Amino acid sequence: MGIFLIIFIILSVLLILKLNTNDFKGKSGEKLVAERLDIIDGYKYILNNIMFNDNGKSRQIDHIAITEYGIYIIETKNYAGDIYGRENSNEWQQYLNRKCFKFKNPIHQNYGHTEVVKKQLEGFIDTTVIYSIIVFIRRCKLHTDTKTPIIYEDQLASFIRNRAKILNKEQINQIYQILLDNSIKNKETIKNHKENVKNYIQYKEELIKEETCPSCYGKLIKRHGKKGYFYGCSNFPKCKYTKCIEEVERS
């Protein structure tokens, strides 16, 4: 009886670890980036995991660095393997252990975050001092072709410090207060946002398993390419959604 109890406990722990691995990686990456932002020289405010209402839609931003060198909206990614991506691609690719996994273009993701911050500060400052940066933890190798800065977390502080100083202490204080005052602080709203994101991801996964395109709801067709089998949308070329078969089976 004792052996079965031990086995049950071990299996339960492994299941919990599996369910929380991606969340843990994300949180650990964000913590590391927050530490890097703290070492930036000069007067500054750093806002981590802050949320805003964007026309009824909640947007959670990993980091906002309000510095003498400008305002930086930062999206953190903590992936291993080789990362390939272009500025205008809908999806980027992660190659890990000879397998390909796709994820949403982080530039597009952070564009919405940057725009919502610009709306908060419009009329107060020149919004050209607001910049978007995508930061990857240095456990991957980047192969990107973009205008938007894509850097490793250990390059972040020096990247910002190399810019010209454009904001003074008074402006930084006012910007910080505006963003803080307009941010979502209601715990229930924040909880609902996280739950909605989780449900949306699960909904997309269910559509794919039913061979339905999550982008246009067309029929997914099994095809074979240079890198193995994948699902392609029947509405191609209007819809260019694809998904690796191995990735679907793994989920």
Q: What's the tally of helices?
A: 6
User: Low-confidence stretches at least 5 residues in length (pLDDT < 50)?
Assistant: 13-24
Shape: globular
Summarize the amount of helix as a percent range. Answer: 40-55%
- Oligomeric state, counting identical vs distinct chains: single chain
Q: Could you say what the CATH topology of the largest domain is called?
A: Trna Endonuclease, Chain: A, domain 1
Strand order of the largest sheet: 1-2-3-7-9
Class by SSE composition: alpha/beta
Cα distance, first to last residue?
Answer: 33 Å
Number of domains: 2
What share of the residues does DSSP label as strand, in percent?
A: 25-35%
Q: Using the CA coordinates, give the radius of gyration.
A: 21 Å
N to C succession of SSEs? HEEEEEEHEEEHHHEEEH
Could you give the count of β-strands? 12
- Which second-level CATH architecture of the largest domain applies? 3-Layer(aba) Sandwich
Mind explaining what this structure looks like?
The protein has 251 residues and is of the alpha/beta class. It has two domains: 19-188, Trna Endonuclease, Chain: A, domain 1, CATH 3.40.1350; 203-251. The protein is built from six helices and twelve strands. The strands form three sheets. It has a five-stranded mixed beta sheet with strand order 1-2-3-7-9. It has a four-stranded mixed beta sheet with strand order 6-5-4-8. A three-stranded antiparallel beta sheet has the order 10-11-12.
